Amino acid sequence: MGGVHPPEQKLTAGKAIEVLPVPSVLSIPLGQALGAPSRAVVAKGDAVKAGQLIARGEAFISANIHSPVSGKVLKVDEVIDTSGYRKPAISIQTEGDEWMDGIDRSPELVRECLLNQEAIVARIKEMGIVGLGGATFPSHVKLMVPGGKKVDTLIINGVECEPYLTSDHRLMLERTEEVLIGTTILMKGLGVSKALIGIEGNKPDALEALGRLAGAYPGISVHALKVKYPQGGEKQLIRALTGREVPSGRLPLEVGCVVNNVGTAFAVYEAVQKNKPLVERVVTVTGKSLTRPGNFLVRIGTPVSALIEAAGGVPESTGKVINGGPMMGKALTSLDVPVVKGTSGILLMDDTSSARVEVEPCIRCSRCVSVCPMGLEPYLLALLSANEAWDRVETGRAMDCIECGSCQYTCPSGRPLLDHLRLGKARVGQIIRNRRN
Questions:
Q1: Domains in the chain, CATH or no CATH each
Q2: pLDDT band of 84, cuts 50, 70, 90
Q3: d(CA 351, CA 308)
Q4: Which of 159, 267, 317, 371 is the most exposed place for a label (fewest CB within 10 A)?
């Protein structure tokens, strides 16, 4: 139901992952997971090693943060992050590349997982693993199935339907077995015997690579999916692979499923089999005007400017730099913002592509309604949000919006529907939290 077909622009699909040089100074924000920010456990002047715990996730929904480098803590202060606001962060000056004892950085594959279910969840929590598809929900919490709920299916999201982004695609090609082993570990952590890996049909090489090896891993099957945005949305993926529909306002647990990204599966492999915290990730740096677009393995805390420099620098025609893809991404206010665990891509768009069209009156064409994958009325919710009718925004199910941007993409009047929907969701979410408290 719903969805659109934006041009793919997978300019970096054939670009192998490159290791980005470590910068001299990194800034590591304390809020890198959906939930409460972590608490710093280091102070100015402290010496740290790569992989060392520097901030502890103390709330139930929070995540540990580890140093991506060895060096000295310059300050625990505030920096502008990808939201455009100043947030608490730990800045570290790089000195060498000394890692904590016990972290295995060798390429040797470790297939057999010796940990039991409880120990797997504990290790994932300890290593600060979060969802790498964008939501950054702490991965250990997903594995802690509440009493009375039953999960029978793990779903691994390899769709990567956002135009331009290819970091997941490259992981599936270059770290195929690690992704499969990570999937078996997640299965064991959940206590399920079935895992479905969903990949859009426009990635035949990834389908072939995973499909060829999946037979050696009991319970794992690989599935080609229709190429349609936002096929990678959690609820859309569950429906496509299982036929089950997640009720409004509910989680995948309600229909016996847990969804994880392929990047998360790889991070889980490294955490459990290599004792390696989440201190680096693959980021796509792309744009039609870039001279060297590519996929880069980047330490968390690296400034975005260093990624763009590695991709050839900022073209003169650049009108906007986006954190993420063109559909769901958000424009950056500065190139000094650091890469965080949820950074999947950096997109540079030229003046023409990034310019907004003149906003015209809504003509009630209903295109936004027909493409909404959640069955909402975006034109109405946007109007209600603009007029601060928060009670009607809530009853109109604004909290079900997945912010995919399909409505705004298809609007012939150029109306900023997604902007208003994001505002409405934020305000209604705050009202709901206040009501619960």
A1: 20-94 (2.40.50), 117-274 (3.40.50.11540), 278-354 (3.10.20.600), 367-436 (no CATH)
A2: confident
A3: 17
A4: 317
pLDDT tens by residue, 3-57? 999 998 999 999 999 999 999 999 999 999 988 999 999 999 999 999 999 999 9
By residue count, the chain amounts to 437
pLDDT of residue 173: 98
Query: Given this model, what pLDDT does residue 346 score?
Result: 98
Q: Contact at 8 Å (CB) between 49 and 76? A: no
Please, what is the Cα angle at 99 between 308 and 124, to 5 degrees? 85
Residue 254 CA to residue 247 CA, distance in Å, equals: 8
- Whole-structure pTM value: 0.95
* Paired tokens of 81: 């992050």
Phi, psi values for residue 385, rounded to 5° = -65, -40
Give one DSSP letter per residue of 328-376, joined into a string. T-EE-S-TTPBP-TT--EEEEEEHHHHPPPPP-------HHHHH-TT--
Q: Could you tell me if 87 and 78 are in contact, meaning their C-beta atoms sit under 8 angstroms apart?
A: yes
Amino acid at 332: L
Residue whose C-alpha is closest to residue 65's, from 38, 88, 43: 38
Tokens of 367: 């295109």
Percent of the chain exceeding pLDDT 90 equals: 92
